[in-house]
Amino acid sequence: MPSATVGASTGPSRRRVPAQARSRERVERILEAAARLVLTNGVDGLTTRSIAEAAELPVASLYQYFTDKEAVLLALCERDMAEMDDQVAADLLAVEELTVATMVDTAMRAFVKVYHRRPAFMQIWMRGRTNPAIYDYGRHHNRRTAENLLAFGIDAGLLTAGSYDEEQLATIAELAVEVGDRAFQVAFENDPQGDAFLIDQAIALVTGYLDQIAAGR
Fold this sequence. Notes:
2 domains; mainly alpha; Arc Repressor Mutant, subunit A; Tetracycline Repressor, domain 2; single chain
């Protein structure tokens, strides 16, 4: 079984990363408070003051780590996308019979697991990516995910260059990830749990596309 490292090295964070345990605990309190407020008030209702109050911290303490609410939202996405990467890697390593279909199904359903565990992240990421930093970070994350899943598929003997050169295969992998991401955005648009039928259709769509590539068509 090839190793599974998905989405790692998604680029440098724009926020201060605390070294001390007390500071890390404060940052986590801030992120959890913001996540709760997103679920109750929505992204647009979020302010740095409301986040600080919910975290039971002075606003000045929040500004030690984040410049504004957009930076807090970006940090939430960074944290939860890292959790998603870990979930995908762990689930892929547990697959007994690896095929294109099981690779796609496992990876995409791992995303769904994290959306269910992290509903605030799902709202931030899936329902309107108006924060440019979050949008850019997400696109970069999708590219890294595509690169790593492509390498995983090649190592497993599922995908070969065939009629495509390396650059074309990389483009194909990125397109597959972007299509799946967009399809999930539709699936979760009106349902925090995701529309099960649309989730299944998204997986079938990406699987069918990559099956054709694997078959050299």
